[in-house]
Amino acid sequence: MANTFLRIMDRLFLRRLFDLRADAQDPTTVVEEVDRNVVFRGTNLWVLIFAIVICSVGLNVNSTAVIIGAMLISPLMGPIIGVGVGIGIYDIPLVQKAARNLGVAVAISIASSAIYFLITPLSEAQSELLARTSPTLWDVLIALFGGLAGIVAATRKEKTNVIPGVAIATALMPPLCTAGYGLATAHPAYFFGALYLFFINAVFISVSAFVVVRLLRFPSATFVDEVRFRRVRMLVWTVVVVTILPSIYLAYTLVDRTLFERRARAFVNMECELDRTHVLESRIDARRGVRRIDVFLMGEPLSDDEISHIQERLKDHDLSDAHLVVHQGDRKEKGVDLMALRSDVLKDLYTAGQRTIQTKDSTIQALQLELERDQKRAVHVDELLPEIKALEPGLTHLTMNRNLLYAPGRDVPDTAIVAIIGFDRSPRRADLERLRHWLGERTRSDSVLLIVR
Fold first, then answer.
1. Distance CA 363, CA 366 (A)
2. Residues 267 and 314: beta-carbon distance below 8 Å
3. Would you say 236 and 210 are in contact if contact means Cβ atoms under 8 Å apart?
């Protein structure tokens, strides 16, 4: 396979561009590093236990950040890559040591997680935990390409941040913690589903290491004849196929269920919402063989003919294999708590009403504040008139208000007092200036405009 890939690259003149051996470390150095990282004892073992407990807490409280932190400090990647590299260079002692240490790490991880979940008071399975119980083909792809990135980075002279990223993407730690949860709570489906996800990750990371080692043409640790090498390669690909087949089925089931639920929701929204009848709730069971859509209606009851017509519309939405069950408020349906449904509707109406009232209260409060500001800005001419009359005996009439004053080139308008004043004789400029200054002090305004009529 490796030689075929390189021949194709040669023909396309791309071999140099895709040459994995560029900037690669010496194979002996890489193998020595891998050999050091497969051992679990002392510090590595304690770090593993601490990381498992941290990850279990993260799954328990549904904290993605805590789970990511645990994956970053987990040393589980070492023995998995060790198995793949050992098979690639036919180093049986390395394979045995890596597999033995991986088994010890898995056993300790599951045991530590199970102990935590036995003593924690929070026993409900959160979404982060449930996400690790049903592996699919996409998990295979993540493990394969994550493993390829990890082993390529491990063979480079210059170390990068690829390895921590691979640890997060492939998620080796959470499945083991989920398996511990399944063991502690006696949920076999959780235990075996999570263990299968870990097995997928481990197998395809090892396969990635095997492929890259063969592409880089690492020298074999012992002499291997062609027949024996073919047997090893056949064994590797047999394990790959056996591992991937269940995930393909699970992926197909997931896609099929998701598409059915999408079509069912569209059917309910289009066909069951009528002028005098509304959908309170819809329940969709997407399992093959028992596919069922339960619709709970409120309002004017539908006749049997109307319900039959709606059921006939199932085939138009590619739902021929689904069974539609209509629950109406005037009928006592077995196993359906109509009072609870009505209570939920009233609760929703009450919540919506409370939100509307709060919005109106906020609007009224804002308008009241604006009114108070306007009242503070208002000019009370009737209070000022006696004082102005004493100051200017020749005053005949007066009107005054606060206005916005706009000027070219200015984005924000100014506020000014505009006073229109009438006299029985023409006032002197000095008298008008004194009156303007007095009005500014009295109304606490910087700008006063006088218009004399």
1. 5
2. yes
3. yes
| Token pair listed for 179 | 């398996």
Give the number of other CB atoms < 10 A from CB of residue 43. 9
Annotate 29-66 with DSSP letters as a single string. Answer: HHHHHHHHHT--STHHHHHHHHHHHHHHHHHHHT-HHH
Q: How distant is the alpha carbon of residue 351 from its chain centre?
A: 27
d(CA 448, CA 441): 10
Cα separation, 403 vs 400, in Å, equals: 10
CB atoms within 10 A of CB 419: 22
Which single residue is written with the structure tokens 């399975």?
125
Exposure string over 252-261, b if 16+ CB within 10 A, otherwise e: eeeeebeebe
Span 17-43, pLDDT tens digits: 445 666 667 777 878 888 887 887 788
- Spatial separation of the C-alpha atoms in residues 218 and 30, rounded to whole Å: 10
CB 174 within 8 A of CB 55: yes
Q: Starting at the edge strand that comes first in sequence, how are the strands of the sheet with 323-328 ordered?
A: 277-285, 292-299, 323-328
Give the residue from 54, 48, 51, 49 showing the smallest Cα distance to 66: 54
CA distance 60 to 317: 40
Task: Enter the tokens of residue 327.
Answer: 């629950």
At 301, is the secondary structure helix, strand, or coil? Answer: coil
Cβ(233)–Cβ(183) under 8 Å? no
**HSE of 207 in the Cβ direction (CA atoms, 13 Å)?**
24
Q: How many other C-beta atoms can be found within 10 angstroms of the C-beta atom of residue 151?
A: 30
Distance CA 240, CA 31 (A): 23
pLDDT digits over 193-217, tens only? 888 888 888 888 888 888 888 888 7
Give every CB contact of residue 42 below 8 A, 6+ residues apart in sequence.
Answer: none
Parallel, antiparallel or unpaired: strands 448-452 and 414-423: parallel
Rounded to whole angstroms, the Cα distance separating 123 from 267 reads 37
Instruction: Spell out the residues 6+ positions from residue 162 whose beta carbon is closer than 8 angstroms to its own.
Output: 149, 150, 152, 153
Instruction: Give pLDDT, residue 334.
Output: 45
Are 422 and 388 spatial neighbours (Cβ–Cβ below 8 Å)? Answer: no
| DSSP bridge pairs for 399 | 420
- pLDDT tens-digit profile of 125-156? 777 787 777 777 787 788 888 878 877 877 77
